[in-house]
Design a protein that fits this description.
248 residues; 16 strands; mainly beta; 4-stranded antiparallel β-sheet
């Protein structure tokens, strides 16, 4: 017995039988747009040694380098850069794999203000705009033939930069360690380029990038920069200087 004939015998119309086969698929409802639950973070750190430096990290897209627009400066133009430089200090601070830094050569021609913004939203990075006239004095300390210098950081920055040099042995590389009570940051080797170190007789590769937590300044102890080779005190991050650069 054919299928149609069987349907007629049981009182089912052909159209009624086939209707389920041709029932239209209901329209799919679009899912609601997800709201960003984790904020993007970064810093425009300013000009050091002829380079405008900073970093930008998007926790939702950790493997995709951010596109940052830089505007102003000596030329007054706008360029877009990828934040794809590795920053060990940013990684140590807990921001992804650390591949989120950028550096733009500006040479000696620096005019302010310089702005850095996320290219997709136009949102400014913290520390933007940066103004050359707002530069603060570095913190310097001598211990025998060794000199250590902290560059003025931006408030809230997870990085302290500077250099450490032994005038008596300029070929040596000092391992610096920041000690704040029970907290330890580093050690890291002072082997990055630092123009001021070269002026003091070194080869220019005595700079350091030291990851740290600014919250330690809320404690009573003053952080100390030490030479990890022999635990010699190089420099104290005193509160007077911290206040002058906006850290405390």
């Amino acid at each position: 017995m054919g299928l149609v004939r069987a349907a007629e015998c049981f009182g089912l119309g052909v159209i009624g039988l086939r209707r389920p086969w041709f029932r239209p698929t209901p329209a799919l409802a679009l899912p609601p747009r997800q709201q960003r639950s984790v904020e993007r973070i970064g810093w425009l750190e300013g000009v050091h040694d002829g380079w405008l430096r900073g970093w930008a990290h998007d926790p939702i897209q950790p493997g995709k380098p951010a596109r940052i627009q830089i505007s102003g400066g000596a030329t007054g133009g706008t360029i877009t850069v990828l934040a794809d430089h590795y920053r060990a200090d940013v990684q140590a601070a807990g921001h992804g794999l650390g591949v989120c830094g950028f550096a733009v050569p500006v040479g000696a021609m620096v005019a302010d203000p310089i702005e850095a913004r996320w290219a997709d939203t136009g949102e400014a990075l913290p520390g933007s705009p940066w103004r050359a006239g707002a530069a603060k004095a570095p913190l310097e300390g001598w211990r025998g033939s060794r000199i250590a210098v902290f560059d003025p950081p931006l408030p809230g920055s997870a990085t302290l930069t500077g250099f450490a040099l032994d005038i008596a042995d300029p070929s040596a590389r000092i391992d610096v360690l920041l000690v704040a009570g029970e907290h330890r940051f580093g050690p890291v080797r002072a082997c990055r380029h630092a123009t001021l170190a070269r002026a003091l007789g070194g080869d220019g590769f005595h700079g350091f990038y030291l990851p740290w937590n600014p919250a330690v300044l809320a404690e009573t102890v003053e952080p100390e920069l030490r030479d990890a080779r022999d635990d010699a005190l190089l420099l104290k991050l005193n509160r007077t200087w911290a206040r002058s650069v906006g850290l405390a």
